[in-house]
Design goal:
By secondary structure, this protein is α/β, with parallel strands linked by helices. It is 56% helix and 7% strand. The strands form two sheets. Strands 1, 2, 3, 4 and 5 form a five-stranded mixed β-sheet that branches. A two-stranded antiparallel ribbon has the order 6-7.
Length: 342
């Protein structure tokens, strides 16, 4: 069954591609992804003739996947298994299955952890870094932030989440549903020091990487968390198929980056910036913000609105959307048509 098929007959708060927050939608996406992962593991175990001694572990992993949310590390290590199987030379992948089994018993809500923290096996970190450090022209080469920086960043995260819970409990619930693990890191590449804020990837579903060396106001932290969680949401929405038919070799001007980006990146930029604008607008309307917080929220909403409109213009010129992509774009256009320009 496709991901969109999972929504048939299920009462969720919004259509899968809508902009409003919905933890119920996230839960449905998560169920679909876990079921697909369980089925894929069964197939891979049979295809690789996994040793019979691992059978009980595999059953345990599948039961865990079908029973409720799991640690994002399960998805990360599954991508490691697939990467190993894709290599030309065959190798013993029983250790990769074992790693997934170890990750499956971790709490689903993994909290905040510094990159390379010893509580996580080193090979897991090695693969996580590969998932995030994919641009050869702009290598990230992340490192762990200092202990003091990590502690301060944790405080900023807690303060941001507390304010979001007060001003918009529904969006707070969605963010917590989408981001189960926050990894604190810092770039070692000098040209990224002032640019890197956060990152996420479909292959580490439920996790977000953020720059732990930066101090942020509560509004800026909410901006970042809504931004990264919206990337994860769009990854989940499009898990069964592409949003666009464009070639992956095309490059276009991004409203959120100095370098040119694939058109799919522009699509993501438009979606996440629009949702940040919506989240901040809802917070402003709540009346829960102080004067200083309201000023910051207005500034961040305007900045995200400008980026989203520019991205939408770029998409209108160059995007070749699929059926799903057309639905998402229609929703984005409707939002900005109804929203006065600042």
């Amino acid at each position: 069954m496709t991901l969109l098929g999972e929504f048939k007959g299920i009462d969720v708060e919004a259509r899968v591609w809508d902009l409003d927050p919905s933890a119920a939608r996230v839960d449905t996406i998560d169920v679909a992804l876990r079921n697909k992962l369980a089925g894929s593991l069964t197939y891979l175990a049979e295809a690789t003739c996994l040793d019979a001694s691992h059978h009980a572990m595999l059953v345990s992993i599948e039961d865990r996947l079908r029973s409720g949310p799991v640690s994002p590390w399960v998805f990360c290590l599954y991508s490691k298994l697939v990467a190993e199987l894709a290599k030309p030379s065959s190798s013993d992948v029983s250790g990769d299955f074992t790693g997934i089994g170890q990750a499956a018993v971790l709490p689903a809500e993994s909290g905040v952890v510094a990159l390379r923290a010893p509580i996580i096996p080193e090979p897991w970190w090695d693969h996580a870094q590969l998932l995030f450090d994919t641009d050869r022209k702009r290598p990230f080469r992340p490192k762990a932030p200092s202990g003091d920086a990590s502690a301060l960043c944790r405080q900023d995260i807690e303060a941001g989440l507390a304010l979001l819970a007060q001003a918009d409990p529904v969006w707070h619930q969605e963010v917590r549903s989408l981001i189960k693990l926050i990894v604190l890191s810092a770039p070692t590449s000098p040209h990224l020091d002032a640019q890197f804020n956060g990152a996420s990837t479909f292959f580490f579903w439920g996790a977000a990487l953020i720059n732990g060396d930066i101090r942020r106001s509560s509004i800026s932290m909410i901006d970042l968390l809504v931004h990264e969680s919206s990337h994860l949401l769009l990854f989940g929405i499009s898990a069964d198929g592409a949003l666009l038919k464009n070639s992956g070799h095309e490059r276009h001007q991004s409203p959120l980056r100095h370098d040119t980006r694939p058109i799919d990146g522009i699509f993501h930029a438009c979606f996440v910036a629009t949702r940040v604008h919506l989240a901040l607008s809802r917070m402003l309307a709540s009346g829960a913000l102080s004067d200083e917080e309201a000023k910051r929220a207005i500034d961040r909403a305007q900045s995200n609105g400008h980026a989203a409109r520019n991205a939408l213009d770029e998409l209108d010129r160059y995007a070749k959307p699929t059926e799903l992509g057309t639905k998402v774009l229609k929703t984005l256009r409707a939002y900005w048509t109804a929203t006065p320009a600042n």
